[in-house]
Specification:
The chain is α+β, with helices and mostly antiparallel strands and 292 residues long. The protein folds into two domains: 172 residues, Jelly Rolls, CATH 2.60.120; 115 residues, Homeodomain-like (Arc Repressor Mutant, subunit A), CATH 1.10.10. Helix content is 49%, strand content 18%. It has twelve helices and seven strands. Strands 1, 2, 3, 4, 5, 6 and 7 form a seven-stranded antiparallel sheet that branches. The chain is globular, with a radius of gyration of 21 Å.
C-alpha cells in the first residue's frame, strides 16, 4: 500500500511540474492531503468545514466556507477540525501564471502579499459561483483544447478579481507565544529553501535580513525571537543549513565546485571556498575527495 501511495504522489508531482498547475476536488474523507513542493507553487483553496490555518505569525480559525490563498514564500500549515471537509484546490507556479498579461495582479493582491489577509469568508451565493469556476478548471485540464493553459490562467485571474471585490476576513489571533511562533515560522521557511535541485535555481534567501524581509518583521525582532527559543542566532541556523546542503551536493552530485557555489547563492567560487573552509576546516574539493 505504501508503494502505491508513493507512486501516486510521485505521479501527482510530475504532472504538477510539467503543467505548472493542477486543479482537483477535495474529498470529504481527508484524501485531499497531497505532498507537493510548497516552495514552488501558489495555492487557492475553496473549502467548507472547520479548520485552523497557521499562516506566518497569525492563526485563522474558520468555520463554514472560506477561500484560502497560499503564497510559496510564506510558511503555513492547515489543521482540519471537521470530520468532513469538502471543496476544491488549484495549485500553480509563478512561472505558469506569469505568462498571463495580467500576472501583476498576483503580486498586488492583498491575499498573496506578505502582511496581507489570506482568508476570505464566503457566502452560499459566492460559493456556488466559485464552485463552478473550479469545476470548469478541473474539466478543462483534462481536455485537448490547444489554449487551455490560457483559459486556466483566466479562471485563476477571475477568482482573484472576484475575491478583491469581497471584504477580507480579519478573523485571526496572534499566537500567545509570539517569539515561539516566529521562530517556528523562520525555521520552516529556512527548510523550504532546500533541497537545491538544479544549478539554474540558486538559493535566494541567504541572510537574516532576507528572512526578516520575507516575514515582514524587523531583523532585530527576528533575531531576538530565534535566539530566545532555539539558543542559536538566525545567522547560525542559516549557516548550518547551507553547510549541510553544500556537503550533500558535494557528496551526491557531479556538479562542479563553481556550480555548487552558484546554486548556494555565492557570487564567486572563492567566496564559497572561504565560507566552507571557515566552517568545516577543509575546502570543498578536499571534502569531496575524502568522501569518495
Amino acid at each position: 500500500m505504501k508503494e502505491i501511495i508513493t507512486r501516486e504522489i510521485s505521479q501527482f508531482n510530475n504532472e504538477l511540474k510539467l503543467q505548472g498547475f493542477k486543479a482537483f476536488q477535495i474529498e470529504d474523507d481527508g484524501a485531499e492531503t497531497r505532498t507537493y513542493s510548497r516552495k514552488e507553487f501558489y495555492k487557492i483553496c475553496l473549502t467548507t468545514g472547520k479548520s485552523k490555518i497557521h499562516y506566518s505569525d497569525k492563526t485563522y480559525e474558520q468555520e463554514g466556507t472560506i477561500l484560502f490563498f497560499g503564497n510559496p514564500h510564506i510558511p503555513y500549515s492547515w489543521e482540519t477540525i471537521s470530520t468532513a471537509y469538502v471543496g476544491y484546490t488549484i495549485l500553480f507556479s509563478e512561472e505558469f501564471f506569469k505568462n498571463s498579461e495580467r500576472s501583476e495582479s498576483l503580486q498586488q493582491s492583498s491575499f498573496f502579499k506578505i502582511g496581507g489577509t489570506p482568508v476570505l469568508k464566503i457566502t452560499e451565493e459566492q460559493r456556488g459561483f466559485l464552485n463552478t469556476i473550479f469545476q470548469r478548471m478541473i474539466a478543462e485540464q483534462k481536455s485537448d483544447y490547444v489554449f487551455k493553459d490560457e483559459l486556466i490562467r483566466n479562471y485563476i485571474s477571475l477568482i482573484i478579481h472576484e475575491s478583491l471585490k469581497m471584504e477580507p476576513s480579519e478573523n485571526f489571533e496572534q499566537n500567545k507565544n509570539a517569539s515561539s511562533r516566529l521562530a517556528s515560522v523562520f525555521l520552516e521557511l529556512l527548510e523550504r529553501q532546500f533541497p537545491i535541485e538544479t544549478t539554474s535555481s540558486p538559493l535566494q534567501l541567504r541572510t537574516a535580513q532576507h528572512y526578516a524581509q520575507h516575514l515582514n518583521v524587523h531583523i532585530n525582532y527576528l533575531n531576538r525571537a530565534v535566539k530566545e527559543v532555539t539558543g542559536k542566532s538566525t545567522t547560525t541556523h542559516i549557516t548550518e543549513r547551507i553547510i549541510t546542503e553544500a556537503k550533500a551536493l558535494l557528496q551526491h552530485t557531479d556538479w562542479s565546485i563553481s556550480e555548487i557555489a552558484y546554486a548556494l547563492g555565492f557570487e564567486y567560487p572563492t567566496y564559497f571556498n572561504n565560507f566552507f573552509k571557515k566552517i568545516t576546516g577543509t575546502n570543498p574539493t578536499a571534502f569531496r575527495l575524502a568522501e569518495v
